[in-house]
Amino acid sequence: MSQRDRTLDAFRRQELTSGETLSRRSFIAGSTAAAAAAAFPAAAWAAVDFKQFKRVPIQYIAALAPPDATSGSNAETWGLWAQDPGPRGVRLKAYDRLKSGTAPAGWHLDTNAWWLEEHGLLMESPNFPIPAGQYLVTGDREVTSVLTVHPASADGRQRWDLADGATLHDVTHLRCRSALYTPAKAGGSCSPQAARESDFPVSPGAAMPPVADCAKQDYQVLIVIGVPKSV
Question: What is the structure's pLDDT at 48?
C-alpha cells in the first residue's frame, strides 16, 4: 500500500480539521479537481449524504467476505489500519531491520502472524476487531458507499452492511493486496525470510503469493475517507 494515485496522495497529505464536514465539493477542493472527478465519478457520490460525514486522514480496512456480498455477520474478523501502513513498512530485503522485533516506525513484528502487502513490504497488523460504527468507504474506482459495522452480539459476532446495494468488490481497492501469514503446522515456523522478492509486485486483484511453510489468508482492502460528524 505504499503507492497511491495523485488524488489519494493529495487527499492524505492534506492537513484536515477534525470537525470539517465532508461534501463532494469540499473533497474536490481539497485535491486536484480534474483528478478527483476522474477518480470519483458523480454517480459514485449521488446516494451518500455528505452532510452527515467529516473527512479523516485516509485509513484502511482489512475485510473478509465474498466479493459479491453486500452484508454479513463476520466483522469481528475485520481489522482497521488507522494510518497508512505502507510508509511504515519494511521491505523483505531489509528484514534485518526487524531482527529486534521492532520496526523503525515503532511497530512490533509477530513472527507467528505477519502481514505482507503487494510491493513486498512487511506491515504492522491492523487493529482487531474493527470498531463498530459507520465508515465512508471506496475502492477508488466507481463506487463510494457507507459501511455500517454493528456492535457485537452476545456471541461476539458483528454484522456489517454496505449502503445502496454496493458489494464488497465495489469498494475494494484492487491495487492494494494484503495477506496474513501464519505457520502452516502447529508448532511450526513461518518466516518472512522464506518470501521471494521475485513474487512482487502483485498485480491488482490477484492473490498474494504463497510462502513456504506458511498458511495464508488474503484480505480485501477498503479505503476509508470519512466518518460521521458525531465521531
Answer: 62
CA distance 212 to 223: 30
User: Is pLDDT larger for residue 31 or for residue 42?
Assistant: 42
**Residue 49 grid coordinates:** 449524504
The Cα angle at residue 29 between residues 25 and 34, in degrees rounded to 5: 95
* CA nearest to 57, candidates 15, 117, 1: 15
What single letter denotes the amino acid at residue 136? L
What are the pLDDT digits (tens) for 145-158? 999 999 999 999 99
What's the rounded Cα separation, in Å, for the pair 57 and 69? 27
Using an 8 Å Cβ cutoff, are 58 and 22 in contact? no
* d(C-alpha 136, C-alpha 80), whole Å: 13
| Distances 99 to 2, 95, 103, 115, 214 between C-alpha atoms, Å | 22, 7, 9, 16, 19
Percent of the chain whose predicted confidence (pLDDT) is above 90? 76
Specify burial of residue 124 (Cβ count, 10 A radius: 0-12, 13-18, 19+).
buried
Q: How much is the pLDDT for 16?
A: 37
